[in-house]
Write a structure and sequence with these properties.
Arc Repressor Mutant, subunit A; 3-stranded antiparallel beta sheet
Length: 114
């Protein structure tokens, strides 16, 4: 499967949910709430590829199917622009999307500073 091949070239990213950032040792990408929710969903899923309708349902926006495609495309473009063209997602024919980067969800250090 293509998703597995793409993951072999990936590096590990950290999703900082409280600050809305996706970071590795060199790059920090600012995320919207929708983008954070989307990545959080993928990191928690046991399925390699997640169907589009499942994503829409889990994000609690069943009426916003077109919005999902735009959110994925916007996040994919943001990621590519920040990483010399690397992909974040792969589209899986007749299914949905597959995350092709390794992402760990980490607690924000800033949230502990108070």
């Amino acid at each position: 499967m293509r998703c597995v091949k793409d993951m072999l070239r990936s590096r590990t990213w950290m999703l900082m949910k409280n600050s809305g950032l996706l970071v590795d040792g060199e790059v920090a990408i600012a995320l919207t709430k929708m983008e954070c929710s989307l990545l959080d969903l993928f990191t928690k899923s046991e399925e390699r590829a997640i169907k589009r309708d499942v994503i829409v349902r889990r994000l609690k926006k069943p009426y916003d199917y077109a919005g999902l495609c735009m959110a994925v495309a916007r996040l994919q473009r943001k990621f590519k622009d920040s990483t010399d063209g690397d992909k974040l997602f792969a589209s899986v024919r007749n299914c949905g999307y597959c995350l092709v980067q390794k992402i760990d969800v980490q607690p924000d250090l800033l949230s502990f500073a108070e």
